[in-house]
Request: fold
Amino acid sequence: MKVIAINGSPKNEGNTYHALNIVGNELKAEGIEFEILHIGHKAIHGCKACGICSTHRDEKCSIKSDDLNMWIQQIKQADGIVLGSPVYYSGIAGAMKCFLDRLFYVSTSNGNLFRHKVGAAVVAVRRTGGSITFDNLNHYLMYSEMIIASSNYWNVIHGRSPGEALQDVEGLQIMRVLGKNMAWLLRMKDAANTIAKAPQIEQKEVTSFIR
Reply:
């Protein structure tokens, strides 16, 4: 089994990285492969709302100026996904938001590629806005019918300078517990595959409130 974590911070080894790495250490301790995909420093275009991915259904975004199409296939092969972002003005960092909008729209437009994968979100913040950003990240996981791993508190760790989050004792525990719970869910899901059939996917109903 494998989990891919998305580092949405511009900093390669900032506090978002450290949070993801703590989760990953627990997964690796359970024999689960773990990889951090750093995208926060990339020039990632926002979604153009062109709808081509829905029309072609080839698991590709029409924008070719970045590596999203390669990343889609990498993440598709994983059993679990962890989304990690720093907090910018009480929200998801810009490059990460552009990445997530396109990644998950291509996924849901192509048969829901991430459906029933185990997912989690983690946030690194200096002072406030962590809960809001954490909630926003979870929107992507929940819309995709993913199985969400939790911890013993919201998955938020505090720190300003790179590495400062390692002084947040409660935050460190939150990430450790999250990693353990995620490993357990992955094992449980794998074991259940032989005894419980997944529900059949339903065609998405789309309505509008404009009369």
